[in-house]
C-alpha cells in the first residue's frame, strides 16, 4: 500500500488552507474598497459601527440557520421565532414586571423549547424540515400576535433593557471605541457556535448528520436525539436574536420577523455553507452577513435609487458567490 | 348572534397599529350598534391579489355589508360589482375607490396631511437646508400620496429646502432605522427627516438616537412609542389621522346604508399635527391611539 | 446437491454457538428477500455466506445487525433468544458489520468516521488528538498507511473500504460481519485483511464473510453456508468441499467453465489509439491502442492511475496533454458527451456515485444513455420501446428485479451493477471501457459477463477492461496493459504469467532509477 | 437464476399505486369536509370558484417551482419574475399600445429569457441555484420597479385583457358553470407540465438530474443544456402566471411578488415533491396549492381571527404532511 499523503503535499494543504481562509474575505474586502473609494463617508468609525450594528440581528439568526443547514436541514422559522422570543421577554418584563434576568432567560428558554419542538417534529414524525419549520414559522407569527394582543410591548419599565443591544461596555472602558454590546453579543454567539461545531460531540454529529445521516444511524448513534439538540440550540440562538432586536427597538414588535429567514439563509449560503449539508463554517456565515449589510449600507450611502439598489444587490450576491467558486476551483 | 348585522371589513393591513386602531374604532361601533364585525388585511400593502382573495372569501360569507380599503381600486372593481349585484352595500375607507359602487368613503386626505408635515418641517429647520423622507411603500396609495404631498410642497413653497433622499423601509422599524443611519452618515449636514408612517417614523427616531444626531424628525400616525418620542422631544411632532374615527364611521355608515339612510359622498375624518405642547388637548388626545 | 448435514468443521464445535438464526423471514414491498433463512456462527471461526446476487445475504446480516427487523424467525446469541432492533443494540451485544455499500460520512475525516458515536472526550470537549492517535494505532495494526486527518471523500474507494474495516475492528466485537469487504481491494490489501482475520480468529472472534471471489472462500473460511432466493440451501466445511460443489449449490446447476477461444485480432484495424496522455502525477505519458474485436486488460495496484486514464479518455476529467484517435481519426473529447458521440462508453468503478441514477427505475437507468434514440417528434419518449429494451436487457443479464419499474436503489448490489452494464450495452458503443465490471457480481453472473464481453469483442467492438482481479484479467484479455504510479509500464500478450504482471505493476520509478544506476 | 416477478406481486403493486394516488387527496378532502360541515357557505359554487381562482396564480407558480425542484434545484425568483413578466405585458400593451397577442407572447418570452439566464448561471457558472435565483429574485424585483416607473400599469386600453383570467369560456357554453379562464389556464399548464414530465425526454432528464447528476453526465448527456431548458421552461410558466395576475388585477403591480416563492415552494413540498430532487408530481403540487387556498378561504369563511388563522394554517400544514407520511409508511 502506498501513502498518498507525501509530506510536501501536507504543507501544501496547510498553506492553502490559511490562504483560503484569507481569500474568503475577498468579496467582502472588494466591496469595502469600492465603497470607500466611492464615498468618504463610508469608512468613518460611526458608519463602520452602524454596519456592525445592522449585522447583529441577521448575523445571530444566520448562525442559528448555519447549525441547522449543516445537518442538511433548513430553518424557515428563525425570523418569527425571534419575534416570538421578543414577545415572551415583553410579557415577562412588562406585563408581569419581573426582573431583567428572568426576561433574558425566558426569551432564550422559549426559543429552546420551540426549537426542540421543531426538531422533534422533524426527527420523530419524519416531517421534512422545510415543512416543519414553515409550519412553525406561521405558528410563531400567529402566536406572537395573539400573546401580545397585536400591539408592541414596550420595555419602558425595564430601563436596562436597551443596554443589551445599544449600550457599549467596550466604550465605557475605551472611550474612543463605542462598540455596541449587540455587536459583542454577535461575536460571542459566533465564538460559542464555532466552539460547539468544532470541539464538541454535538458539533461532530451536526456535520455527520449532514454528511450521511443513514451512516450515522448505522453507526449506532441516536440520530434523533442529536438532531433535536441542534434545532433546540438553533432555537435558543433565535432567542438571543429576539433579545437583541427587542432591546434595540425598546419594544417587542409582534408583526415583524417574516422575511428575515431569507436574509439569514442567504448569509449562510453566501458564506459558503452548502444547503445539502455536511459542510459550513460560522466564520463564513459572519462574512456572508457582513457582505449583505455592507452592500445595503454602501448603496444607501451612495444614495443609489432604491429600485436600483435591489438590482445591484442581486447582481453582487451572484457575483460574490461566483468569485468564491472561481477562487476555490483555482486552489 | 344570528340576528346581528354581519359586516366584513377588508383593510389594507392588519398587524400595524394604525390598522389595529381602525379595528378598535370598528369594534366600538359594532358594540354600540349591535353588529358583528370581522377585520382582515394582507401582510403588506403590495399584496393586491391577496386582498382580492380576502374580499372574495368575504363575499362567499354573504355578509350584510362590506367595508373596504382598496390597495388598488381598479383591481377590486369586478368583485365590488359582484357584491353590488348581490345587493351588499359597500363603504370605502382609508382611501377612495375609483368607482361609484361604494356608497361613501371614510378617509384622510394624505396629500394634504403630508403637506402639513412639510410646512412644520420647514418651520422647524428655518426654511432652508437638506431634508429626507423615509417612507413605507413605494407603490401603495398612501406611500405615494404622502411622499408626493411632502416633496411637492417643499418644491413649491420652500425653494431653499432640498429633499436629498427618499427611501423605503417597508414600514419595518429595524430596516427604517438602518436606512436612517445611512442617510445621516451620507449627509452629515442633513436638517430633518420625515417618517411617512408609524414604523418608518419610529425607525427614523431610533436611527437618530443611535447616532446621537440632532436632526428634526417629523412622524406620521401615533401609537404608544411615537407618542413617547414626541413627548420626550426625540420627534419634533407628528401628523395623526383619526383611525379610530375611520373605523367607527365606516361601520356606522354601513349600518346607516342598511337602514336606508342617505350618506355623504366623503366622510373626512381629518388629520392633526401634534407635538409635546398640544398632545394633551382634548381634541388631539381623542384621536391619538396607543 | 450437498445437504446441511455434512458437519465436519475444522474448529471443534462448542456446545453453544455465538449466533444462531433460524426460520428468518423478511419481505420488502414486492420482494420476499428471506424465506426461512438460517445461519449459525461459532467463536473463532470464519463462516462464509454465499449466494447469487439478490440471494438475501446482505438482508440476513442486516437483520442480525439491527438494521432491519425480521418478519419471523428466531435469533439467539449464546443460546439466548434476543431482539436486536437497532444498530446500537447490535454493537452493545458485540456485533459489528462492514456494510456492502460504503456507509461513510464523506465530509468527516477518517478518524472521525471510525469513532463516530464514541469520540474520546476531555471535560466534555472532543479530544481530537486522542482520536487521531487511536485511529493511527488501528491503521498501524492493519499495516495501513493512512493519515487519520484526511477527509474520506478525497480517498479512493479502496481506501474508503479500509476505513470501514478499521471502523469495524475498532469495536473489538465478538461477531464481525464483513459484507464483500474485498470488492474494492487489490491482492496486497486482501492479504493484509486476511492476516487481520486470522488474528481475530485466534482471539475467538466469529467472522461472517460474504464474497463473490471463490478463491477467497477456500483461503479463509472454515465453513460455508449457501443461500438461494432467500432460502437456506446448506452448510458445508470449506476444506472438504470443491468450489464447483459450492457453485452448484448457489446456482442450482453446474456451470460450464469453458475457456474462451481467443481469436486473432492482430490484423484488425485499430479502433482507439491514445497518444501521450498526461495529467500531473496521475497520468504520465500514457500511450496505447486497442483494435476492433480486441479486449485490452488493464492491470495495476491501487492508485496505479487506471481509472484516471479511463476517465480522461472519456472526457470525465480534464487532461493536460495527449491525443485520442478513434478509427484512425484524431478526435477532441472534452466532455463525456463528446466521447459517447464518438462511440465510446465508460462503466465507472463506483456505481452508486457515478453509475446509477438511484431515484429512477430500472428501465430508465438502462435507457439513460440512449434516451435520444427513444425520443420521437416533439421530444416524446417511446415508452414501449424503452420497456422492451429494458426487459430484453433484464433477461439477457438475468437482472433480478420484481419489474423493470422497480427503483434502482432497491436492487441488490450486484444487480445494480448489471443495470449499469445494461445501460452501456443498450447504447451500442464501438469502444467500451469497463472499470471493475464484475465488482460485487456473483460467479454465475460473472461468467455471463465474461461471455458477454467475448461476444461483444466477437462483434468487432474494442474493449478495455480495468480489473484488480488478476485471474479475471488473464482470462479475458487478448493483451494486458500494466500501470504503475501513473505510467504504463508495459503491455504483455494474453497468456502472460501473474509474475510478469506483478513485476510491471510494482515497477516503481525509484526502482527503475536504481536499476539504471546499477 | 429465477424470476421473482410473480404475477400476483405485480398486481399488488399496481393496486397499491392507484390506491396511493386516491389517498393522496385525503388531506384535501378532510379539509373540505370539515369546512363544509362548519359553514353552509363553504360548499357554494361561488365559493368553490373563488377558491379555484385564488389557487390559479400560486398553482401556476408552484408548477414552475416543481420542475426546478425535481432537478434538485430551487427557484426563489418565481414570484418577482411573475411580476416582471406582468410589467413587460404592461409595457407592451399599455405603454406601446401593441395588440393583445403580442403582450401575451412578450410576457412569456420575458419569463423564458430570464429563466434561461438563471439556468445558464447555475449550469455554466456553477453558482448554487439558491444563490442564483435569490439574486435573480432581487434583480427582477428592482427591474420591475424601474421599468414600470414604480407605479402600477393599467390595462384599460386593452379591453380583452381581464378576460384572460376573469372571463369564462366554460360559462359562455354552459351558463350554470362560470369557471373562470384563469382556472382553465391553471389546469392547462398542469396538464402540459405533467405531459412534459411524464412523456418527454426533457421530463426524463429532469428526474434524472435530480436523482444523480454526475451519473447523467457520465452517460454522455449534455447536462447543462437540459438543466438550462428546465429553468427556461419554469421561467415561461412564470410568464403565464404574470399574465394571470395582471389580468386578474387589470394592472401590473410592480411591488408585488416577493414572498410568493415561499407559498409556491410550500405547495410543492406539501404535494410530496422532495426538496432533494428526483421525485415529484404535478398532481401533488396542485393538491398542495389547493390545500393552501382551501385553508385560507375556509378559515376566513369561518370568521376565524386573522392571527389565529396563521396559527391554524401552520399546524395544518405540518399535520397534512405528517398524515401523508403515515399513509405512505403503511402502504
Ligand atoms: N430495502 C429494500 N427494499 C426492497 N427490496 C430490497 C431491499 N433490500 C433488499 N431488497 C431485495 O431483497 C433481495 C435480497 O437482497 P440482498 O441485498 O440481501 O442480496 P445479496 O445476497 O446481498 O446480493 P448481492 O450479492 O448482490 O449483494 C433482492 O431481491 C433485493 O432486491
Ligand atoms: N478523489 C480523489 N481525490 C484525490 N486523489 C485521488 C482521488 N481519487 C484518486 N486519487 C488519486 O489518483 C491516483 C489513482 O487513483 P485510483 O486509485 O483510482 O487508481 P486506479 O488505478 O484506478 O486504482 P483502482 O482502480 O485499483 O482503485 C492515486 O494517486 C489516488 O490517490
Ligand atoms: Mg449484498
Ligand atoms: Mg480504479
UniProtKB/TrEMBL annotation, chains A, D:
Keyword Cell cycle applies: no
Keyword vocabulary terms for this entry: Cell membrane, Membrane, Transmembrane, Transmembrane helix
Domain of life: Bacteria
Membrane topology recorded in Swiss-Prot or TrEMBL: Multi-pass membrane protein
GO molecular function: transmembrane transporter activity
Regions that span the bilayer: 22-42, 48-69, 76-96, 102-123, 130-148, 184-208, 228-246, 282-302, 308-326
GO cellular component, as recorded: plasma membrane
Places the protein is found: Cell membrane
Main location, first listed in the record: membrane
PANTHER family linked to this entry: ABC TRANSPORTER PERMEASE PROTEIN YPHD-RELATED-RELATED (PTHR32196), RIBOSE IMPORT PERMEASE PROTEIN RBSC (PTHR32196:SF72)
Protein name, UniProt field: ABC transporter permease
Amino acid at each position: 500500500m502506498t501513502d498518498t499523503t507525501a509530506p510536501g503535499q501536507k504543507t501544501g494543504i496547510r498553506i492553502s488552507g490559511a490562504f483560503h481562509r484569507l481569500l474568503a474575505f475577498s468579496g467582502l474586502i472588494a466591496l469595502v474598497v469600492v465603497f470607500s473609494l466611492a464615498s468618504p463617508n463610508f469608512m468613518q468609525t460611526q458608519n463602520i459601527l452602524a454596519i456592525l450594528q445592522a449585522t447583529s440581528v441577521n448575523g445571530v439568526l444566520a448562525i442559528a440557520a448555519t447549525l441547522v443547514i449543516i445537518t442538511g436541514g433548513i430553518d424557515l422559522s428563525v425570523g418569527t421565532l425571534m419575534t416570538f422570543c421578543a414577545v415572551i421577554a415583553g410579557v415577562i418584563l412588562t406585563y408581569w414586571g419581573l426582573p431583567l434576568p428572568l426576561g433574558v432567560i425566558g426569551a432564550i428558554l422559549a426559543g429552546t423549547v420551540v426549537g426542540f419542538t421543531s426538531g422533534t417534529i422533524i426527527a420523530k414524525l419524519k416531517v421534512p424540515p422545510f415543512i416543519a419549520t414553515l409550519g412553525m414559522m406561521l405558528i410563531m407569527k400567529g402566536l406572537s400576535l395573539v400573546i401580545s394582543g397585536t400591539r408592541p410591548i414596550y420595555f419602558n419599565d425595564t430601563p436596562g433593557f436597551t443596554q443589551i443591544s445599544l449600550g457599549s461596555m467596550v466604550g465605557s472602558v475605551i472611550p474612543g471605541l463605542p462598540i455596541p454590546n449587540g455587536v459583542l453579543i454577535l461575536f460571542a454567539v459566533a465564538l460559542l457556535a464555532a466552539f460547539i461545531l468544532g470541539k464538541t460531540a454535538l458539533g461532530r454529529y451536526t456535520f455527520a448528520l449532514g454528511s450521511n445521516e443513514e451512516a450515522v444511524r448505522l453507526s449506532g448513534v441516536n440520530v434523533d436525539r442529536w438532531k433535536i439538540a441542534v434545532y433546540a440550540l438553533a432555537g435558543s440562538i433565535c432567542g438571543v436574536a429576539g433579545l437583541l432586536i427587542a432591546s434595540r427597538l425598546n419594544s417587542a414588535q409582534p408583526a415583524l420577523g417574516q422575511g428575515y429567514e431569507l436574509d439569514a439563509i442567504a448569509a449562510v449560503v453566501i458564506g459558503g455553507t452548502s444547503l445539502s449539508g455536511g459542510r459550513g463554517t460560522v466564520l463564513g456565515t459572519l462574512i456572508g452577513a457582513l457582505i449583505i449589510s455592507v452592500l445595503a449600507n454602501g448603496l444607501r450611502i451612495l444614495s443609489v435609487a432604491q429600485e436600483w439598489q435591489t438590482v445591484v444587490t442581486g447582481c453582487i450576491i451572484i457575483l460574490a458567490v461566483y468569485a468564491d467558486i472561481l477562487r476555490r476551483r483555482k486552489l | 348572534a344570528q340576528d346581528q348585522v354581519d359586516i366584513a371589513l377588508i383593510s389594507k393591513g392588519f398587524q400595524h397599529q394604525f390598522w389595529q386602531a381602525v379595528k378598535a374604532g370598528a369594534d366600538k361601533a359594532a358594540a354600540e350598534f349591535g353588529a358583528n364585525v370581522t377585520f382582515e388585511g394582507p401582510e403588506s400593502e403590495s399584496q393586491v391579489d391577496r386582498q382580492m382573495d380576502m374580499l372574495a372569501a368575504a363575499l362567499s360569507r354573504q355578509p350584510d355589508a362590506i367595508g373596504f380599503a382598496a390597495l388598488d381600486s381598479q383591481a377590486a372593481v369586478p368583485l365590488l360589482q359582484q357584491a353590488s349585484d348581490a345587493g351588499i352595500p359597500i363603504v370605502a375607507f382609508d382611501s377612495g375607490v375609483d368607482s361609484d359602487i361604494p356608497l361613501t368613503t371614510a378617509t384622510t386626505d394624505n396629500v394634504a396631511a403630508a403637506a402639513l408635515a412639510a410646512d412644520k418641517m420647514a418651520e422647524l429647520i428655518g426654511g432652508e437646508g437638506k431634508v429626507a423622507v423615509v417612507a413605507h411603500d413605494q407603490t401603495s396609495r398612501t406611500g405615494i400620496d404622502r411622499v408626493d404631498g411632502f416633496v411637492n410642497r417643499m418644491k413649491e413653497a420652500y425653494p431653499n429646502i432640498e429633499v436629498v433622499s427618499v427611501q423605503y423601509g417597508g414600514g419595518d422599524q429595524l430596516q427604517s432605522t438602518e436606512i436612517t443611519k445611512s442617510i445621516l452618515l451620507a449627509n452629515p449636514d442633513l436638517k430633518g427627516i420625515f417618517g411617512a408612517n408609524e414604523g418608518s417614523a419610529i425607525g427614523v427616531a431610533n436611527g437618530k438616537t443611535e447616532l446621537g444626531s440632532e436632526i428634526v424628525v417629523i412622524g406620521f400616525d401615533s401609537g404608544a412609542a411615537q407618542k413617547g418620542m414626541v413627548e420626550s422631544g426625540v420627534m419634533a411632532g407628528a401628523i395623526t389621522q383619526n383611525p379610530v374615527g375611520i373605523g367607527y364611521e365606516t361601520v356606522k355608515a354601513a349600518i346607516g346604508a342598511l337602514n336606508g339612510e342617505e350618506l355623504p359622498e366623503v366622510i373626512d375624518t381629518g388629520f392633526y399635527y401634534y407635538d409635546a405642547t398640544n398632545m394633551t388637548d382634548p381634541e388631539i388626545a381623542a384621536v391619538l391611539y396607543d | 446437491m450437498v445437504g446441511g448435514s455434512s458437519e465436519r468443521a475444522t474448529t471443534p464445535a462448542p456446545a453453544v454457538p455465538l449466533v444462531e438464526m433460524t426460520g428468518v423471514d423478511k419481505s420488502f414491498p414486492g420482494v420476499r428477500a428471506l424465506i426461512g433463512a438460517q445461519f449459525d456462527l461459532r467463536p473463532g471461526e470464519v463462516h462464509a455466506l454465499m449466494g447469487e446476487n439478490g440471494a438475501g445475504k446482505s438482508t440476513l446480516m442486516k437483520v442480525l445487525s439491527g438494521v432491519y427487523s425480521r418478519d419471523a424467525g428466531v435469533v439467539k446469541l449464546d443460546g439466548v433468544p434476543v431482539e436486536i432492533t437497532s444498530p446500537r443494540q447490535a454493537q452493545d451485544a458485540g456485533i459489528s458489520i462492514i456494510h456492502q455499500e460504503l456507509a461513510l460520512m464523506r465530509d468527516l475525516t477518517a478518524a472521525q468516521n471510525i469513532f463516530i458515536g464514541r469520540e474520546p472526550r476531555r471535560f466534555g470537549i472532543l479530544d481530537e488528538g486522542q482520536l487521531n492517535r487511536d485511529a493511527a494505532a488501528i491503521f498501524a495494526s492493519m499495516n495501513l498507511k493512512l493519515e487519520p486527518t484526511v477527509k474520506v471523500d478525497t480517498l479512493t474507494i479502496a481506501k474508503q473500504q479500509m476505513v470501514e474495516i478499521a471502523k469495524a475492528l475498532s469495536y473489538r466485537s465478538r461477531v464481525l460481519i464483513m459484507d464483500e469487504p474485498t470488492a474494492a481491494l487489490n491482492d496486497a490489501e486482501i492479504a493484509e485483511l486476511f492476516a487481520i482475520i486470522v488474528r481475530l480468529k485466534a482471539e475467538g472472534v466469529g467472522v461472517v464473510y460474504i464474497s463473490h471471489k471463490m478463491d477467497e472462500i477456500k483461503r479463509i473460511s472454515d465453513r460455508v453456508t449457501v443461500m438461494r432466493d432467500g432460502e437456506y440451501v446448506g452448510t458445508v466445511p470449506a476444506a472438504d468441499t470443491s468450489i464447483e460443489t459450492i457453485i452448484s449449490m448457489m446456482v442450482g446447476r453446474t456451470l460450464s467453465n469453458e475457456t474462451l477461444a481467443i481469436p486473432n485480432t492482430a490484423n484488425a484495424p485499430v479502433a482507439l489509439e491514445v497518444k501521450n496522455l498526461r495529467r500531473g502525477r496521475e497520468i504520465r505519458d500514457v500511450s496505447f491502442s486497442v483494435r476492433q474485436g480486441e479486449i485490452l486488460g488493464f492491470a495495476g495496484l491501487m492508485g496505479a492511475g487506471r481509472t484516471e486514464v479511463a476517465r480522461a479518455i472519456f472526457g470525465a476529467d480534464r487532461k493536460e496533454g495527449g491525443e485520442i484517435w478513434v478509427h484512425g481519426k484524431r478526435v477532441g473529447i472534452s466532455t463525456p458527451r463528446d466521447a459517447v458521440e464518438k462511440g465510446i462508453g465508460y462503466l465507472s468503478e463506483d456505481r452508486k456515485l457515478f453509475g446509477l441514477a438511484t431515484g429512477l427505475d430500472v428501465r430508465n437507468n438502462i435507457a439513460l444513455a440512449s434516451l435520444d434514440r427513444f425520443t420521437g417528434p416533439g421530444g416524446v419518449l417511446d415508452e414501449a420501446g424503452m420497456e422492451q429494451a429494458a426487459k430484453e436487457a433484464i433477461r439477457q443479464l438475468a437482472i433480478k428485479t420484481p419489474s423493470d419499474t422497480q427503483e434502482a436503489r432497491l436492487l441488490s448490489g450486484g444487480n445494480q451493477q448489471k443495470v449499469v452494464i445494461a445501460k452501456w450495452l443498450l447504447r451500442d458503443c464501438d469502444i467500451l471501457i469497463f472499470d471493475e465490471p464484475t465488482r460485487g457480481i456473483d460467479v454465475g453472473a460473472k461468467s455471463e459477463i465474461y461471455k458477454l464481453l467475448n461476444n461483444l469483442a466477437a462483434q468487432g467492438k474494442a474493449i478495455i477492461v480495468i480489473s484488480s482481479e488478476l485471474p479475471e484479467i488473464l482470462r479475458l484479455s487478448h493483451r494486458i496493459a500494466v500501470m504503475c504510479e501513473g505510467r504504463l509500464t508495459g503491455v504483455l500478450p494474453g497468456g502472460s504469467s501473474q509474475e510478469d504482471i506483478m513485476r510491471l505493476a510494482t515497477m516503481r520509478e525509484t526502482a527503475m532509477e536504481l536499476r539504471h544506476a546499477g
